[in-house]
Batch of 2 targets.
Target 1
Amino acid sequence: MIVNNLTLCYQGKVILAPMVRVGTLPMRLLALDYGADIVYCEELIDIKMLQCKRVVNEVLDTVDFVTPDERVVFRTCERERNKVVFQMGSADAERALAVAKLIENDVAGVDVNMGCPKEYSTKGGMGAALLSDPDKIEKILSTLVKGICKPVTCKIRILPTLEDTLNLVKRIERTGVAAIAVHGRKKEERPQHPVHCDIIKAIAEAVSIPVIANGGSHDHIKVYSDLEAFRQETSASSVMVARAAMWNPSIFRKEGLQPLEKIMQEYIKYAVRYDNHYANTKYCLCQMLREQLETPQGRKLHAAQSSQEICDAFELGTFYEEMVAELAAKAATLQIQAQEEEEAEDPDVIRMAIKFDKRQYPPQITPKMCLLEWCRKEKLAQPVYETIQRPVDRLFRSIVTVSEHKYCSALWDKSKKLAEQAAAIVCLRSLGLPEGKLGDNTQSPLMHKRKVEERELWKDRENEEALSGGAPHKKPHLTLATNNIAPDRP
């Protein structure tokens, strides 16, 4: 039933095509504003997506898929939830399915790009490299169709002969995909080569599923009326546009193109509102300006090294400041609300406003180590740390449990390790115990233990060298690896 719904959705629709560094959220939303019915994200590689975790961003009102190093790989929002198709690059059916399951509840459909001729895609067996392996194509698509509840599509390029192309698309149709997009060029052909409308037409007449015509931006599509003309010439169910939409997303506007200056300002506002990386924003604006890059405004854009500088180049400096302040205020409000909710949920947790600064501690001593050593000395169970990450800003807080009492810092930290160290400090200070800090009047037992171990090791080294006839030249640098306690760095 869902597949049928998407088939109807595709029928006669205009689609913003995927293109590397083009299909980010601001561009997709702008295309929807001007009449695009379906938007594709940029092609994202399966291995990269499998490193991500799903994070609800309450400040931006988005869903983010974030890598371990906190880089946002894919960002979407409620407005495009039923209109965005997630396009991936994959050469493995099981990896493709794992990615599809990760994102299927946040998108309208899943597409596999089997037409990208770029080396970054083909060298991994993805993109146009799949065209020479129909068995793998069939396995990937069949696995996706059977494995997820959202519609599955794919995008291909034409093969050297019409017969080979038709054999491939019929095999793809049998996998159960909802639609097939056809870029009307061979994998070695580029935009300057004419698109083969006759081949797309032959494909559309050979299969019963919707065919999406792609590749007309250079020669065929300049204004809105060209979209329908291209669709009719190819007998396709719908049209997919990439470069023409990137140059001016108002190409989807029935009433005609809007002035480029207006389009760029609207795009920049979306980019700031959704915290788009300035480099991507700059790239997209350069694509819009094209031959105007040598104008004073184009030179300002070329020199910009931040979102604020981009806004200044387009007389949007005030907008930038107001939007940044608005988002910061929202983040602060959400943080206060989250803290109040946590304190109400667990009033038994002892809290202090503390952060761990490793510069205040000896290189080989941390609060966590001091707390662990004290628990061992008192014959208590070792400390148990429970660390959570706050979705609103992806900061961390840890609660440590010692002898059935809980302790944590009232402040949030940028890493799990720092949060755990802060929790250990709260516990140590609450119990009146030394934390190993530099300049403490009361010397930590752990520090004393380390000094004893160091002296003993030094004596052993002296004895060994004396027996071998050598003499020590300098005191060896001791590391935690020489001790029984494992290293614990923030």
Target 2
Amino acid sequence: MSDALAKFKAGMPKEVIDAMKQEFKDNYDTNKDGTVSCAELAKLMDCPEEEAQRIITGVDVNCDGRMQFDEFLLYMEGSTKVDLYSSDEIKKMFDDLDKDGNGRISPDELSKGVGEISTKLVECMANKLIQEADKDGDGHVNMEEFFDTLVAKLPLRKDFGMTEKLLERFKKCFHEDFDKNGDGSLTTLEMGQLLNRNLPGRYSEEQINKMISRVDLNDDGRVQFGEFLMHAQNLSKDDIKNQFMAIDKDKNGKISPEEMVTGIKEIYACMVDSEVAKLIKEVDRDDSGCVDIREFRRLLLVLIPFMN
């Protein structure tokens, strides 16, 4: 718990804290794991998960995507994590980022001017990727999990620029235009229709099978969405294996959280710039491409955990 949050809690009467702790246990923490997830809050409040996530983000001091009890206190008091800091402290944070002193934080200042923020962003992204891919719950990612999940998550070619918008376009193309039977994969026939749509007969069935084999990570003779992305980026399953091995530094067949952090820094550095650009876009009300002191308070909802 941050010093600022500890100070906030210390200023509350003990009987109030005890009452809220009981409320937290009885009505919010439904699975009794000591935290409130986005799904738990959405169900409790009967609201969309996007709204629940907005609430959690506002008090998520440790940036774990969940609401701890001390963060719950903030929420119940109608405060956010930004309210933990004085105006002078916020101004100092802004000035520390505003390297050229022009009253605005540029994307370059945010991504390059503060190494510790970039490092924390990478760590958060790496931990999130590990959680999404780790199907067996061992805290690591093996090659099968890497194939199944991270092919669609990581920018496997640094020169390709897989933006969120482009990824959504590929998903729509895959599911609406080519996966005709809606089973989540492309057969030889469906792949042939995709490849031959402009020039019928250009590719033979044998050629199409070779193309499928080139990206068929699980060797089922079909093309799943992640493999479809590989085809779009002109990548083969050998390329993916090489990517996995490049991240797996100790060559034990599993990627640890620490290895994922190093791997992103070395191979997927563009993810940091993409994340920074997304942060600025979310708070940039005047479309200047930068963040002024008024917009900075909204940016702090995300940055505070990285600045403590």
